[in-house]
From TrEMBL:
It comes from Graphocephala atropunctata. It comes from the Eukaryota. The keyword tRNA processing does not apply. Residues 1-18 form the signal peptide. This is Ig-like domain-containing protein. Residues 55-139 form the Ig-like domain. Gene3D superfamilies: Immunoglobulins. Keywords: Signal. GO terms for biological process: synapse organization.
Length: 189
């Protein structure tokens, strides 16, 4: 296993000829080439990389307007003090919501919890219609691992009918009359 970690440069192996410190390498020998970056790089086997525990179970989440919803990101093999980032994809742009347990959104309806080792939860309270959309849980690995969740916000429909199941629109009743009303709620998750 090869591990290269540093703050100022990201090193990658290439097979092309290049000049390094005035020495020329042959086309068949590996060359270290530097790219300016502020990235921690770890080259390792895929079996040791973090992975999402049950990615298929939370691809789509449905919540009701005004209610709270929890989005889960379950990650196995997340090293040490490493945490996930939560982002929201809106109009082609990513907006950072949280890194670990620290919120970066000014929207107080968001909160983040670590329920058990590896189970990161983004909670959205008092859902609004415009909360519907794509949310991402990102693991800071190389390459980055991304779990995308689509949040559907359902707006319940309320229908009030009379005793014959006719929707009540503009109806007039005499004072003292007995009326029977039915209230039907549909589109509830």
């Amino acid at each position: 296993m090869l591990v290269l970690i540093f703050l100022s440069s990201l090193w990658t192996w290439t097979d092309s000829s290049a000049f390094i410190s005035g020495a020329r390498s042959s086309p068949s020998s590996p060359v270290l080439r530097t790219t300016r970056s502020a990235v921690w790089s770890e080259e390792t086997t895929t079996s040791a990389m973090p992975f999402f525990a049950d990615p298929e179970s939370s691809l789509n989440v449905t919540g009701q307007l005004g209610a709270a919803v929890e989005l889960h990101c379950r990650v196995n093999r997340l090293p040490g003090e490493t945490s996930v980032s939560w982002l929201r994809r809106q109009e082609g742009q990513l907006r950072l919501l949280a890194v670990g347990l620290e919120l970066y959104s000014s929207d107080s309806r968001y909160s983040v919890r670590l329920l058990e080792p590896g189970d990161w939860q983004l909670r959205v309270r008092s859902l609004l219609e415009n909360d519907q959309g794509h949310y991402e849980c990102q693991v800071p690995s190389h390459p980055p691992r991304v779990h995308s969740i689509y949040l559907h916000v359902v707006v319940p429909e309320l229908e009030i009918t009379d005793e014959r199941d006719v929707p009540i629109k503009d109806k007039f009743y005499n004072s003292g009359s007995t009326i029977q009303l039915k209230c039907r709620l549909t589109r509830v998750p």
